[in-house]
Every structure is written in structure tokens, then in C-alpha cells.
Design goal:
alpha+beta, two-stranded antiparallel ribbon
Amino acid sequence: MIISSDSDKIWCWQKHYRKDKKRWNEEHVVKRRDGTGRKRCTTENDDAALLNFLRDNPFETAVSPCEYVNFPGSIWAARKRIKCREISNYSAARKPYLPQENTQQKIAYAQEFLNKNNDFWKKVIFSDEKVFQSFNNGRMPVYRPRNSRYDERYTQNVQSSGRFSANMWGWISYRGGILMKD
């Protein structure tokens, strides 16, 4: 591979750079002419089946839908078809697992104290503990549309477990607070 100074800046083969530069100078266009290039090995129905599978199963890899829908192209062709559509492969957002019954109990508890006056809150001490843990759950890839990171079906629920932990406890009130650790 011989690289000229201009082609080096855009990372391409020198012969492709010269050809594109000549075409730009003559026609002021660099895009591919109609009818040139390799023919597609898939149909629109194949592409649609691939995308529908990933919409229904967003946490699958690109290999699974190829096997499931008998995609006629390679895995690389499948990834190109997916990439040029409205979904992309991102890392899933992570959130702690919280059962529905716990969510409802927390809302009921909060509503119980919603209309309390300032004198009540001056007598309250808020206390909390936090356990920081290490665990080796990596990021999970997910196929999803743009700007849908926190949609429920595209998030990864995680449960805490780990090899080491650091316990922290603290409290705060109207008059001040303190932080302690084990």
C-alpha cells in the first residue's frame, strides 16, 4: 500500500484517492454510479425479517437473528443491514432490580408523609446505609432505536453481588448530619 500525503489524511488506498479526486474534478461528484458495485445478496423481505427479530429480541447479538430467520448473507452483511436502519447496537442502560410490589409500597409510604408541616420535619432524622460492591457484570449490548436508552425494554436489570464491599452509614436532620464507615 502506497499512501500519499492527502490520502494518508483520509485513510484510503492511493489509487482510490486518485480516482475519486479525478472524478471530483471532472463531475463534482464522488458517490457511486448507479449499477456499479456488488449486487445485494438479500431482499427487502430478508432485511425486514432480520430487523423484526431484533425489535422483538433487542438483547440478542447479530448472529442469532441470522440463524433464526435464515438470513442468506454473511454476518457482516447482516450488521450492515441493521446499521443502515433505525436501530443500532448500544450498551444497555443498567438499573437496580426493584419488584413491582416494592415500588407500590414505596409510593404509598411517600404519600403518607406528603402533607406534613415544617415542625414535623424538624423532628425527623433521615438515616441511610449504602454498600459499595465490586462485581464483574460487564456491559450488555442491545439493539435499540436512537434516544430510547431508558425505555424499560432496553434496560438491563442488575442484582447486587460481589467479591468485596464497603459499608457506609450516615444520617442527616434539620440541625446537621454525620457520615460513618465500617
